[in-house]
Design brief:
Length: 352
């Protein structure tokens, strides 16, 4: 089917692909978001959910093409099990329905400057829909493996910059987007960063690393008007990207008086604390531990410390708004509400 109608009755197969992958909370967020839209009146169903462990991007793309007799390695998450099994799948949907019905408002601590929504602002949205679609969220090390010659239609500059973290197969064509950076900027705005400020008052991104997520964040941050201090790391940020005009040197950082966000992309997946810290209004962890839920928002002497669930949630909502269901983006839940529901869902899974 085609046109600009809302999702309608459509079978959706969702997967998270990368390595490691067993710690991922993306399946939980996917079910929560789909349940929210369903309760808003859309006939959206996640008929299948998979964790796909892979070091190459062709394997998850092949999963999207093949509907029958698929052979795959079972991957078990301690919190929700293997989402490809019927029991875990039904359990996720059952608990999500309860959580979404009960949790209607955000925890007040999670909306310091009112709610942040992810509604698209384009005047017209034209999107072709298949009767069955496959949606894939990519994690490390897959984000840079697609090229402009891959036959994938980019919805932004993620293919050119090697920052693809979302794929959609509509039955005939592949589409891609990068939402890590959109999520980071949304979080900054959520906590009071003013991107209208310029010069030495511009928001400053203090960033360790230069991989796919880092490049996505540098692109979005510079596009929003912020300055960037690339602090090195295992892989330095490329000096030839679209963010180059917004880079400032370490010597100039002291003169910057804008709000600062620090993030370390060299943190290993599943590790929720960075070994490197700097003075910043917002310390955002790039990773999280799905087996532990401490303080996801902690007040420090200089500002806030945020668990990696914030970045995961923000980029996931941006994915629904930009590539998965842009025609229904005005119905998506906000960042604060989704964070509140995510923690409630984790508690429900542990208690069930």
């Amino acid at each position: 089917m085609g046109g600009t109608d809302l999702l309608g009755s459509m079978q959706i197969r969702y997967a998270v692909a990368g390595m490691p992958i067993q710690h991922s909370l993306s399946p939980v967020l996917a079910v929560l978001t789909a349940t929210h839209l369903k309760q808003a009146g859309l006939e959206v169903e996640l008929d299948e959910i998979n964790l796909l462990e892979s070091k190459d991007v062709t394997s998850p793309m092949a999963w999207a093409w093949v509907n029958k007799n698929r052979q795959r390695i079972e991957i078990h998450n301690r919190l929700y099990g293997d989402p490809s099994t019927t029991s875990s799948h039904l359990r996720l949907h059952r608990l999500a329905s309860t959580v979404v019905s009960k949790v209607k408002t955000a925890d007040t601590d999670y909306v310091p400057n009112s709610e942040t929504l992810f509604d698209r602002v384009e005047d017209s949205i034209k999107i072709r829909r298949g009767e069955s679609e496959s949606w894939i969220s990519l994690t490390s090390p897959l984000k840079h493996l697609l090229s402009p010659r891959s036959g994938v239609h980019p919805l932004d500059d993620s293919l050119e910059n090697g920052t693809v973290n979302q794929l959609r197969w509509d039955g005939n064509n592949w589409f891609c987007a990068g939402t890590d950076g959109n999520g980071l900027v949304a979080i900054a705005r959520h906590f009071g960063f003013d991107f209208e400020s310029t010069g030495v008052e511009a928001p400053l991104l203090c960033m360790v690393g230069g991989g796919g997520s880092a490049r996505s964040c540098a692109t979005a941050w510079s596009s929003a008007g912020g300055s960037i201090w690339a602090m090195g790391g295992r892989r330095s940020l490329d000096k030839r990207g679209p963010w180059v005009e917004n880079l400032i040197s370490g010597d100039d950082v002291v003169d910057n008086i804008g709000m600062r966000l620090f993030i370390d992309f060299d943190t290993k997946p599943g590790v929720s604390v960075s070994n490197r810290l700097t003075d910043a209004d917002l310390h955002l962890n790039s990773s999280y531990n799905s087996q532990e839920v401490g303080l996801i928002l902690e007040q420090s002497e200089s500002g806030f410390k945020l668990d990696g669930r914030w970045l995961l949630t923000a980029q996931h909502l941006a994915a629904w708004a930009r590539i998965f269901s842009p025609e229904a983006s005005h119905l998506l839940p906000g960042l604060g509400l989704t964070m509140t529901r995510l923690l409630a869902m984790e508690s429900a899974l542990r208690a069930d």
